[in-house]
Amino acid sequence: MQEGSLRIAASNTVANYFLMEHLARFRGRYPGVQLQLRTGPLTDNLPLSAWDLLFTEEQIERSGLPPHMELEAWREDELVAILPQDHPWVRAGRGWVRWEEVLAEPIVWREPYSGIRRRVEAAIVRAGLRARYSVEVTGVEALRDAVAAGLGIGFASVEALDKVRWPLASLRLDPPHGLFWTLYLMRPQADFQSRAVRAFLDLLATPD
Q: Which three-class secondary structure state does DSSP give residue 74?
């Protein structure tokens, strides 16, 4: 395959920590295929039909999908609290923290369209509690810097933390269950997949 195009949209977290290595592998195998990657908040007005593949942290109802597209669960990950390494909970050797304890601390939130933020807010509501809004930042790096500076506790993906070297500690949430989330992939039905789409999907399914 020496030509063609592949248009992918993904949220910031998915793009930065789940997709880049796959895109690099694809580029290495098919340098002639034009890659277009849109990252950022996947807002309600995003034209889904403009993309060959879409990676999202939110489930999309079937009625909201283009007719030739389908949505599938792509992978599952855990969300954890992140905090400075000198925090008293870390020094005490704790591995878990309860929502009541988290909400008694200042919290650093991602922007409103962040999938992680939405998932955490929903979990707090399910626990019958009310979220506090202390500090709000935009982007993963700003979250990291704010938490490292001691502005509050943040939330991040375990798999993302495994791929970066942040000067932060992490604690599991909501013992003993933990807080998990599912990432979703919107893709064309088999009969509507281009050669580039099929090649990228095959690469996703193949270990490095």
A: strand
